[in-house]
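Researcher: I'm preparing a figure for a lab meeting and need a structural model of a single chain. I don't have an experimental structure, so a prediction will have to do for now. The sequence is pasted below. Please return the structure as tokens so I can convert it later.
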Amino acid sequence: MRAQSFVAAVLLLTVAGCAGNQGTQPQTGDTRFVAGDGKITMFEAADRKPAPAVQGETLDGSSATLAAHRGKVVVMNFWASWCAPCRAEAPVLKDIAAKTKAGGVEFLGVDFKDRKADALAFERVQQSGYPSIFDQPGKVALSFQGTVPPAAVPSTLIIDRQGRIAARALGAVKYNDLLAVVTKVGDER
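Model: Understood. Here is the structure written out token by token.
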């Protein structure tokens, strides 16, 4: 009986040790899920950092780059089919993408940490109307490290016309908040 109690205590300590530091910011390469509240943080023009080069194959097999949208405002959304907040925000993104396209705003999705078949099924249902790069290993997300934690899904970035990160949201975005920020960045000249 004592041996069973000892084994149980060791297992409990082992599990507790694995779960330690759950409240801290993920470190380089950390893949723990990071929840967000969807609040959008705007960056002052003087404090904006250039977005890294982004390129990859889209879910439909074509190629997409962030550089192809230079001179336009780009809303970049990191998502995965298994992510409930991603499914919840998909109609918001789809509607704002359609509403702002005539004003020179482009949307680009980045599907990461996902199975391609699941991502394609998600796209068939959601019909977002904009391309998504299939980035299963998360290389695109890692290139934004320091701005977006590598395990934050969903995350949304607004890139200004000069290719700089103007705003970010961690978590599912809210319609009015995203529309207001996209409009504000779009009005900058």
